[in-house]
Amino acid sequence: MSESSTGEIVTAAGTWRRGAGLAGAAIGVLAAGAAAGVAVERLTVGRGMRKKARLALDASAPYGSLRGAPGRALADDSTALYYEVDEIDPEAGPPGAQRRRRLFGRRAPAPVTVVFSHGFCLNQDSWHFQRAALRGLVRTVHWDQRSHGRSARGVAQSGPDGAPVSIERLGRDLKAVIDAAAPEGPLVLVGHSMGGMTMMALADRYPELIRERVVGAAFVGTSCGGLGELTYGLPSAGVNAVRRVLPGVLKALGSQAELVERGRRATADLFAGMIKRYSFSSRDVDPAVARFAERMIESTPIDVVAEFYPAFAEHDKAEALPVFAEVPVLALAGDNDLVTPSSHTEAIAGLLPDAELVIVPDAGHLVMLEHPEAVTDRLADLLVRVGAVPAAANVGGHGSSADSGR
């Protein structure tokens, strides 16, 4: 193994609007397994300057602009799950790909497909740098989890009862995406945070799929259980108090979604400060990358946050991990991840003794955006090991957040 405030929820009629706005900002981030917290980093520029910067970055939209061939899979409850496929460039594919096509034509053996699963309150675009680096070199599938991105709102969740989402349900969703987008051929599964948990749920429910088709796996900033014990870098007494009331508060806020969303927009600076604090560790994160993450997270409605939140405390898939023991595994995390601490990634590697454990220095939860080169390089190494990309493949500057071409 290589180791390379809580704030009082004000519900009185005269102050509900202000309280809901602050709660929507704080809880929306606290519950989001993608970028959570209640501590705020002091902002050093004026409100007007921040507003102008947000408008400029939103107008240019340099990140999250990569698109592939669209498709839709139907989950077993009829929820439409959106995915995109990036196919192999015949001139850049793995060795022998062109020869196989000449020999077999349409009947050529299916190529390796890399399936990327994103985290809570994010969407498939969170893999922007890795997608840019691998484009044309390997067949990839990027999908949006239910109620996220371009996927439909979960059918069970949009009903009158608003049933919560389970990690087990997400595992079944991933199976539906695989059946639709990559029904045959070897697979490499890559998941960040909730996406990694989704992979574990897939293995728990469909171990034969893992044994028969999966040739590699990458768990990025995720956990196999114990999330109910996290303190997010805050005093444990305060966090425990919040944890006791949070499910009920989230349900109440979810029933007032429009009001909460208006409040969250009104507290955009507070929201941005919390996202930065709990998504990234280094001080010199590209402002455009920070705003990109903020846009993804703020696009997740509070009622969706409420539906997913209970699943994380209940998540326990340690017993499913050994299904991956026979394939190359990458377990990677940021050393200052406050959402799914690196100790959780170390625990995953401990259950998979042959896994490559990588702890990226000066990195937070959104490590694939903060230090994209480190993540892309390790992922490329994994893909070379399983024969998905040629050893001489150049993933170059696409992995850098400083890349002006983006």
Automatic annotation (TrEMBL):
<dbReference type="GO" id="GO:0016787">
    <property type="term" value="F:hydrolase activity"/>
</dbReference>
<keyword id="KW-1133">Transmembrane helix</keyword>
<dbReference type="Pfam" id="PF00561">
    <property type="entry name" value="Abhydrolase_1"/>
</dbReference>
<dbReference type="InterPro" id="IPR029058">
    <property type="entry name" value="AB_hydrolase_fold"/>
</dbReference>
<protein>
    <submittedName>
        <fullName>Alpha/beta hydrolase</fullName>
    </submittedName>
</protein>
<keyword id="KW-0378">Hydrolase</keyword>
<keyword id="KW-0812">Transmembrane</keyword>
<feature type="transmembrane region" description="Helical">
    <location>
        <begin position="20"/>
        <end position="40"/>
    </location>
</feature>
<keyword id="KW-0472">Membrane</keyword>
<dbReference type="InterPro" id="IPR050471">
    <property type="entry name" value="AB_hydrolase"/>
</dbReference>
<dbReference type="InterPro" id="IPR000073">
    <property type="entry name" value="AB_hydrolase_1"/>
</dbReference>
<feature type="domain" description="AB hydrolase-1">
    <location>
        <begin position="113"/>
        <end position="372"/>
    </location>
</feature>
